Amino acid sequence: MSLGCSKLVCPMALFRAERREFGTHLTIWFTGRLDLIYTKVYAIIDTGPGRHLDDLNALSPSSEELVGAVQWCRTHDPSAGFHQMAISMLESLDYHEAANTIRDQT
Amino acid sequence: MLDFLWDAWANLGLSASGEMSEIDSPLDPEVLILATAIWGRLDARLFDEVLDWMHRHASLLQTSRIRTLSKTYHFSGQRVANAMLDAVAAQDGGPVWKSKKPKKVEAEEVLFSTNPFFGEADPIFKDHGLVRPPVEFRGYSRNFPPDHPAAQMLRLRAFMGISTRADCSLYLASIMEGSMTFHAAGLAKILGYSPQAVAKSLQEMVRSGWVTSFRPPEPSDGRVVSYSATKALRDFVRVSQVQEGLATLKVRKWALILQPLDYLNRVLSKLIEMNASDQIVQSELSRCYVKFHRTDLWEWRDIYPERQTVFDIDSILRFIRSLHGSDAGSSSQPRVSATTSA
Known about the structure:
With 106 residues, chain A is mainly alpha-helical. Chain A is 59% helix and 9% strand. In chain B, strand 1, helix 6 (123-127) and strand 2 form a beta-alpha-beta unit. In chain B, the strands form two sheets. In chain B, strands 3-5-4 form a three-stranded antiparallel sheet. In chain B, strands 1-2 form a two-stranded parallel sheet. Chain B has helices spanning 2-11, 29-39, 44-56, 63-73, 78-89, 123-127, 152-160, 164-173, 184-191, 195-207, 231-243, 254-273, 278-291, 300-303, 313-323, and strands at 109-110, 130-131, 182-183, 211-214, 226-229. With 342 residues, chain B is mainly α.
């Protein structure tokens, strides 16, 4: 994912990116873990579970990280449908506490 | 199995990252689709990339083979494979494949068994009783690499068209001069075509002079005609392998290798479901290995010499125990929870 081109850049994402150098002429900034969680949560709520959910599971997010991710996602899509989908996702993944936190934030 | 499927598909042009192993014998795309319909349910990314690959290579796929192979070898992935074909055919610019109308489904099941499902379901998969998110074709697949040994079946189809002749040529050319020959019924069973279609093609291929026929002297089964490739045909088919420095073209009967693995998978799932004891697991697995001792399953050792867990009952027992976190070295009678599929 290119942070520079994405319209959905998470706040401060560049500061969390991991810099890696390959040889003398190639430097790649890899998206940091927290930003990957945020964007994966967005993708799951937007398109449904599937490969994105496999990726999110591999990142083993905490309940707080998921709440933060959903809050960030809602800055891009504040609709009631999106809010409901976010709660469904958290419930399905057994993050009931996070789901309740988000439910309270109508 | 997932490692194998990623390696196999990546050898045929699927979009994949990381280090992939080279498969040095021609791969059978229809058997791989059936295998993906079974084990791809454990990896959504692989599953969707395969759909994308199928869309790109649709003109080289013989969909009737999927049904015939599934029926002949009792593969368990037919319903999922039908849904995959329908999803590819429904795309813009998708192939015109004859769709098999899905049977009425009593209860829907989640396609990707490792994940819970929520949200909108894909309508095509739903018709087949499978719930999954809407399919997204990302268009990342590349054309198959024509010089790669794994892509030789596709290469011949691209040159000769998707016909029995292309697939027959590959198998006939794989036999060394003076060694065994094929007869039509045997080749039809391996390839998943009707015996009549294969017999007719072989008879016509003999007329080209690139295939020879041989009828054994009476009385030894005088009605069975055997066929073999001439040196010209063998050289033509093997040209890329010669360039790679390989002296022989090893064509594997993929359906015969993967069918026992599918059977083992189902047996293991059942054992886990019924919470079987170690003794029962050992006895059932031993029974499976005896059942398949004369099959091509054992070629798996050549394909993945470093991954032989499937033949090691102790490793399988350790795996089953790990599913519910019991001590691997315990001599007690661990029981397996029914929470996860093998």
